[in-house]
Design a protein that fits this description.
- This protein is mainly alpha-helical.
- The chain has helices at about 25-60, 75-80, 85-115, 125-135, 140-150, 155-160, 180-205, 205-215, 220-230, 235-260, 270-280, 285-310, and strands at about 1-5, 10-15, 60, 70.
- The strands form 2 sheets. A two-stranded antiparallel sheet has the order 1-2. Strands 3-4 form a two-stranded antiparallel ribbon.
- Helix 2 (about 75-80) packs across helix 12 and helix 5 (about 140-150) packs across helix 10.
Amino acid sequence: MTLLSSAPGGASVRRPAPPSPPPARPGRRKQAGVVLAVPALVWYLVFMVGPLVAIFVIAALHWPGMLQPVSFAGLDNVRTVLDDPVFWDSVGNTVTQLVVALPVMIVCAYMLGYYVAQKPPGHRALRYLLFIPGLISTPAKAMVFYAVLSPDGMLNGALDKAGLGSLTDAWLASPSTALYCLIVLDVWSGIGFTAVLFAARLGSVPDEIGEAAQLDGAGHWRAMWRIHFPVIRDFVGVVTMLQFLWTLFGSAQNVLLLTQGGPGSSSTTLSFLVYQKAFIAADLGYSQTVGVVLFLVGLAGLLTIRRVFRQNY
């Protein structure tokens, strides 16, 4: 390729154009992508796959403490776990926690998020207020709930003043109420943050959809569940997965701070049982056997939620 340029006398002079750089080879681009992905891949293998493999390995060992000798146990830990009534109590408590907390949290958070997405007066301040439980540390939340639910706490005091003293109870020390108090804490901690997520997603739904529903005579209730919910169905599935994992694996800290799994084993969950057997009973093999069960429950739950919400990823 040549270029035309003007000489001092007005004549045109043909000059060769500078050579264009050679196109990059696809092979080089692929190699560069692989090189950039190596640190992330190493991180994933060491800190994600490594601990997962370690759970299954330790579950097959008899390991009575971090500094104690280790021996191969085979399936003895599985038999011990299945014969332990505390394990089955923790399974029942975990199922109750998920069945009660997860639907209540998702449904209420979606409805609250829909209300915020309608931009009522003070909706900006409401978004900040909903974030407050997420900004409080877990020990502080536990202290607040202990102050409310202790025998001399605010709840019993309010019942006494209302003439309902017969309804007072040691809420955190009663086998019939301890687990449900923890469930209330889980819902209170997660509902505001989840509502803000829903409000952000609903805010990206085109206004024309809501306007068309209003023209068709749809009220807020019908528009919320029949119009907007199908539009963000995939996002609801993602948030449900996240809250499922948080409730399943993160309940141990609230149990540890408020009830220690008691009275008896009435509030012991699977995640707390993993902690209890590993750091209190010093039985790492038993602990990680329960950890394997916890992993399988989490995997089955994620697949179930994905199927219910028809996730395409």
